[in-house]
Amino acid sequence: MIRHVVLFKFKKFENDKDKQVKEQEIKDALMALKDKIEVLRSIEVGINTNSKETYNLALITTFDNYDHLREYASHPEHLKVVELIKPVKEDRSCVDFEI
């Protein structure tokens, strides 16, 4: 099995309300992928509540193998979420490992 861990750092928002709304929108869109992409075995999405850290959101997904991870990465539903994230993304870090 493959664990895919992604951290997102978002650009500055005009205010905390806009930030909270966008973070929740992205979280909801990511969580909805579970019902749309068959090869996605599990998904967790967390909005960072530690104000001392700089990354805003963590995504943890599990796949049977790297082929399934690649299928997920190119899936049209995943690509829609990528487009949702792009305008607010400042940075992204990713680690993929076998479990």
Please specify the SSE layout and strand pairing.
Elements: E1 2-10, H1 16-32, E2 42-47, E3 57-63, H2 66-74, H3 76-85, E4 89-98
Antiparallel strand pairs: 1-3, 1-4, 2-3
Structure, described:
By secondary structure, this protein is an alpha+beta fold. The protein has a single domain (2-98), classed as 2-Layer Sandwich (Alpha-Beta Plaits). Helix content is 36%, strand content 32%. The protein contains 3 helices and 4 strands. A 4-stranded antiparallel beta sheet has the order 2-3-1-4. It is globular and about 40 Å long. The mean pLDDT is 97.
Strand order, largest beta sheet = 2-3-1-4
Write the element-wise H/E pattern from the N-terminal end onward: EHEEHHE
CATH fold annotation: Alpha-Beta Plaits
As a whole number of angstroms, the C-alpha radius of gyration is 14 Å
Q: Helices and strands: which structural class?
A: alpha+beta
Provide the number of structural domains.
Answer: 1
For the termini, the CA-CA separation is: 5 Å
* Low-confidence parts: none
Number of helices: 3
Residue-averaged pLDDT: 97
- Provide the CATH architecture: 2-Layer Sandwich
Helix content: 25-40%
Biggest sheet details: 4 strands, antiparallel
Beta content comes to 25-35%
Shape: globular
Let me know the number of strands: 4
